[in-house]
Amino acid sequence: MGQGWTRRDLLLALHETEGIGAARIGKLRREGLLEACMHFPAEKWIREYCLTPEQAAAARRTLTLAYVEERKRLYAREGIDWVTVEDEEYPELLRKLKNPPAVLYVRGRRELLHHPAYAIVGTRLPTAYGRQTARMLAERLSDVGITIVSGLARGIDACAHEGALRGSGSTIAVLGTPIGTIYPPQNAQLYHRIAEQGLLVSPYPHGTPGNPNLFPARNAIIAGMTYGTIVVEAAERSGSLITADFAGEFGREVFAVPGMIGSPKSKGTNGLIKNKRATILTDPEDVMSDLWMTEAGAESRRRVLEAARRAAEELTDEEREIVRLLENGPMSPDELAELTGFPFGHLHALLLNLTVKRKIEQHPGSVYSIR
Q: Which pTM does this prediction carry?
């Protein structure tokens, strides 16, 4: 390797070369040609790696020390760091995939890359029930040290990040844009909070133009760096179902929160459960049970039990009112809505909270009673 070069530099240069993606970089690494590729003639890139002549010419420009030093100065000015697939800091679960991104650009708390993590995703236009459920699940899981990963989109993603920031596990936002490009713009305040209290991650180099085709790769990273994916609310063709599909493909657990029958916002999640593509999630402890089966589980289990005990002792005024009514006997959500005057979506979220706190239980026919 030339003077002043490192393998990290070379991986950065390759990652930022048009036409040389994760699969080609993986091939070079497996064949032991990472250093040698610096000297490949254009014809070799074209013949053996299927680059176009234009891409082969670009490789000759980017695989230089001058290019790498210029990019490193740029990232230093922008407050952006980067980790390669060969670095210890790289997320271990993501590294296990067949062709993980060669480089991840990061800003914030890099230690979160090695915390036990689960993804929470869902529709961009959630109901009140979906928003409250996403925040509740994220906060409870974060409280026991689990890092919540999502995509900084409007709706469920944003609620998941907000809930997680209240707990000790914090949150990682995987972006479908380069770090420094805030999308959607209305999440700018949340973006800056995550940069300070959590971690921003992107596989895209500075200067990459926005494109809807960038988001599926973002979804694959969300699924790939986590032990499991939780889908809170999703329409029939929701993009969050792509993340669930990736999680299933990678052999990770998929959870789905059940929604109201007939609600368009829950067709996707209910379909995942119905078709046995996801485990039904009615309690954060479902996630804990999954995590305890992993190497990260022992310490998390201790913290979960402590948090569950604390949560069980705390009820809001609205939750106390529901418990008081159910002391008179089992009731349906319709009966509770009539007696309390709570909007149905809000009531559904309160019932879920009380179930999580093990104060009430649900019976067939959507009837609730004191536990």
A: 0.78
